[in-house]
Design brief:
about 450 residues, mainly beta, Immunoglobulin-like, twelve-stranded antiparallel β-sheet, four-stranded antiparallel β-sheet, 19 strands, about 15% helix, globular
C-alpha cells in the first residue's frame, strides 16, 4: 500500500491501564474519526459508569463512586434550528461544568448523568447557548444561529479590528502569559478515521498530555491504537499516518520574531505580511439577549497560489478573546513515502474551539477534515476526519513526540491489548464508525505494525 505522510493515527500497551487510569475516570463520552502545519509557537500558543452500565464504550468508575451514584445515559442530536442540519463537535456539559463531551460528525452525543445532575449546557460558537433540564431533554436540541447585523458592519473596519487583535496577543506573548513558567497541562483524546471511496479503511485513537494555551503543543504520548485494511490486488487505499499534526494549527501569529514558527510551506495570517496575502472582512453577530460577537475573516487574494490557511475568528468585542477559529488550508501536497513523489493535493478544513483561562484561550477541541483525489487521472477519493478533545487537567508525563510518522512509531513500540480499549468511547461513534470498528476487531487489524 502507498502511504501518505503529513497526516496522524493510534495503539496501547500493557502498562496502559495502571498508568493512565485517570484518563478514563475523567473522560467524557462520545465518537467520530492531515498534514502538519509547522507552526508551533512556544511563546503562544467524563464520565464514569457503574458495573451495571449498558452503554458500550463508557469509562467505568471504581470504588465508592459506583455505590454513591446511579448512572443513566442521556442521548440527543444537536442541530441548527434554521436549516435542520446537525452541528458537529458542539460542546455539551452537565450543570456542574466539570463533565462533558462534544457531538460527533452527525451531531450526536451520549453522556452519563447521575441522580444529582439537573441540566445540560449545549453550545456552539456563533449560536445561542441553551441550557436544557435533563427531565425535558428530547431527541433533538435545537440551537438558534446568532443574527448577522448588516447596519453595524460599517462601524467596524476590518483592518482596525485586525490590528487591535494582533496588538493584544503580541502583548500577551511579550509578557509571557501564554507560556507561564508552570503552565497547566491537559489530557487530550484523539480519534482519526480514513475512508477510501466512502468505505472506512483506517482508524487511530490516542491519549496525550499537552500544553494548550492558544495552540496544542509540547505533546507527550500516553497510549494509542491503530488499525488499517490491507489493499487487495489492484486496490488503492489512502492512509494518513501523521494527520494528527493538524492539531498544531495556529489561527494567526502576532509577530513571528516572538515565536518559533516555520512558514516556508504554508502561508497563514501574521502581522507583518497579512495584507500581502489576504483580504479581511468583519461582521457582528448578536443573539436574542443582545450579546454580541465579532467575526473576523481572512480570505486569500486571488493571485496567491501557494498553500495558504484561510480562516474566520469569533472574537469577544470587549476582551478580544478568541472563542473559535474556523478555516481551510488549501492545496496541501501529500507524498508517496516509497518514492517521495507528490500524489495529490487536498484542502483541509479545520475548526478550533477555545475556553478561557485567566483571559487566555485554552484549546478545547480541534477538528480537521481533508478530502481529495489521488491524482488528476485517478478517480479514487480519500477522506480523513480527526478530532482532538480536551478531557481535563493532567499531570506532566508521557513520551515526547517528534519527527514524521512519530505517533505511529510510538503506537508500534507500545503494543496493543484489546481489553484495555474495550470500554473507551470518549466521543459517541456514528453507526458507520461502529460497523468499521467491529470489522477491524474481528479481522484482528489492531496489532503492532
Amino acid at each position: 500500500m502507498k502511504e501518505m505522510r503529513k497526516s496522524g493515527l493510534s495503539f496501547p500497551g500493557r502498562r496502559f491501564r495502571e498508568r493512565f487510569a485517570g484518563v478514563f475516570r475523567a473522560a467524557c463520552i462520545g465518537g467520530a474519526g492531515a498534514v502538519m502545519m509547522a507552526a508551533a509557537c512556544p511563546a503562544a500558543g467524563q464520565n464514569g459508569g457503574g458495573p451495571d452500565s449498558s452503554l458500550r464504550g463508557v469509562p467505568r468508575t471504581e470504588g465508592a463512586e459506583q455505590t454513591q451514584h446511579r448512572w443513566r445515559v442521556a442521548e440527543a442530536v444537536v442541530a441548527d434550528r434554521t436549516t435542520g442540519l446537525p452541528l458537529s463537535y458542539a460542546s455539551v456539559y452537565l450543570n456542574d461544568g466539570r463533565r462533558g463531551t462534544v457531538t460527533n460528525r452527525q451531531g450526536e452525543f451520549a453522556i452519563r448523568i447521575a441522580d444529582g445532575d439537573e441540566s445540560l449546557a449545549v453550545s456552539y460558537v456563533g449560536y445561542e447557548k441553551r441550557t436544557v433540564p435533563i427531565d425535558r431533554l428530547t431527541d433533538t436540541v435545537w440551537l438558534r444561529p446568532m443574527t448577522f447585523e448588516i447596519e453595524t458592519i460599517t462601524v467596524i473596519p476590518a483592518d482596525k479590528l485586525t490590528e487591535r487583535l494582533f496588538k493584544r496577543y503580541e502583548e500577551l506573548y511579550r509578557r509571557g502569559r501564554l507560556v507561564p513558567r508552570h503552565e497547566e497541562r491537559y489530557r487530550y483524546y484523539y480519534r482519526q478515521t480514513t475512508q477510501t471511496d466512502g468505505e472506512y479503511n483506517e482508524v487511530m485513537e490516542a491519549f496525550f498530555n499537552a500544553a494548550a494555551r492558544f495552540s496544542v503543543r509540547d505533546l507527550r504520548y500516553a497510549a494509542g491504537r491503530y488499525a488499517k485494511l490491507e489493499p487487495e490486488r489492484g486496490e488503492y487505499l489512502f492512509t494518513f499516518t501523521n494527520f494528527f499534526t493538524n492539531s498544531y494549527i495556529l489561527p494567526f501569529v502576532p509577530n513571528p520574531r516572538l515565536c518559533d514558527v516555520r512558514i516556508a510551506d504554508i502561508i497563514f495570517p501574521y502581522r507583518n505580511t497579512y495584507r500581502r496575502f489576504y483580504t479581511t472582512s468583519a461582521a457582528v453577530l448578536t443573539d436574542s439577549r443582545g450579546e454580541r460577537i465579532y467575526k473576523l475573516t481572512f480570505k486569500r487574494k486571488p493571485e496567491v497560489w501557494r498553500s495558504i490557511s484561510e480562516c474566520s475568528l469569533y472574537i469577544d468585542p470587549e476582551t478580544l478573546f478568541i472563542h473559535r477559529c474556523e478555516g481551510e488550508i488549501r492545496r496541501l501536497e501529500y507524498f508517496d513515502i516509497s518514492n517521495n513523489l507528490p500524489i495529490s493535493k487536498i484542502d483541509v478544513r479545520f475548526s478550533i474551539t477555545y475556553r478561557e483561562q485567566e483571559g487566555i484561550p485554552v484549546v478545547e477541541t480541534v477538528h480537521a477534515y481533508g478530502e481529495g483525489f489521488r491524482d488528476m487521472n485517478d478517480l479514487h477519493t480519500g477522506d480523513v476526519n480527526a478530532v482532538l478533545f480536551n478531557v481535563g487537567p493532567s499531570e506532566a508525563g508521557g513520551t515526547e513526540l517528534g519527527g514524521d510518522d512519530f505517533l505511529l512509531r510510538q503506537i508500534t513500540s507500545d503494543g496493543y491489548d484489546a481489553a484495555e480499549w474495550e470500554d473507551i468511547e470518549i466521543i459517541k461513534r456514528t453507526p458507520l464508525e461502529e460497523r468499521a470498528m467491529r470489522m477491524f476487531e474481528k479481522k484482528n487489524l489492531f496489532r503492532t505494525y
